[in-house]
Amino acid sequence: MNEEIITKRNTLLAKKVIKGLESRNMKGYWAESKEEALKLALEMIPEGSTVTMGGAMSAHEIGLVQALKEGNYNFIDRDEMEDKRAAMLAAYDADVFLSSTNAMTEDGILVNIDGNSNRVSAIAQGPKKVVMIVGMNKVCSDVDGALKRARNVAAPMNAQRFDIVTPCTQTGACMNCKSMDTICCQFLITRFSRHEGRINVILVNDNLGF
After folding, report:
1. Rounded-to-integer distance, Cα 107 and Cα 44, Å
2. d(CA 146, CA 139)
3. Contact, 76 vs 54, CB < 8 A?
């Protein structure tokens, strides 16, 4: 497909999403490339900041995680810590929490599903700033569409990524299971932020994450 046409469509849609985010007291930004997204993200994270994250593949894909590890930041990487619980709890007092979103609407509502619930709880409250890296593949027309995407696209693919035993890893779609390994324990719909400037969404002209 013609990349110029895709970029034009994404640029126009991103303007609508950013306007929706602003109406909900959240900030939206547009990046035409992964490189531009990385630059924007680093501008939001002062050197010396304590930074933690959920399992955001999008942050890895734009090179943000590597940049934080190599830069002058106190980056807490739970994958490199023996005490995973301590790493998760550190998020609630962090300067910056990195994440993506499982899905979002064209008018700026964020939809997320979580198993351990550390990610959705940190998005809801705790860290001083949340920086989300979001590919345009995550944007849906409405909340119903966003929930369907989160349950039937993001959840099965993440379950496969974590190599856990759930029905969706076999079927590719949500089976509304009650498996002990389910990653669909908590649903968070973020429709407004009381704290101006806390939630920042960088929309990227690319397909990122799951």
Report:
1. 23
2. 8
3. no
pLDDT score of 1 more than 70: no
Enumerate the β-bridge partners of residue 75.
Answer: 51
Which has the minimum average pLDDT: 49-53, 77-81, 109-113?
Answer: 77-81
Rounded CA-CA distance 85/154 in Å is 24
Residues 183, 69: Cα–Cα separation, whole Å: 28
Is 3-204 assigned to CATH 3.40.50.1370? no
Q: What's the pLDDT tens digit per position in 187-197? A: 999 999 999 99
Domain boundary assignment for the chain: 3-204
* C-alpha to C-alpha distance for 61 and 164, rounded to whole angstroms: 23
Write out the two tokens for 77.
């990487």
Q: CA–CA distance from 190 to each of 24, 78, 102, 121, 146 (Å)?
A: 9, 25, 12, 11, 12
DSSP 110-159: EEEEESS-HHHHHHHSSSSEEEEEEEGGGEESSHHHHHHHIIIIIHHHHH
pLDDT band at 23 (very low <50, low <70, confident <90, very high): very high
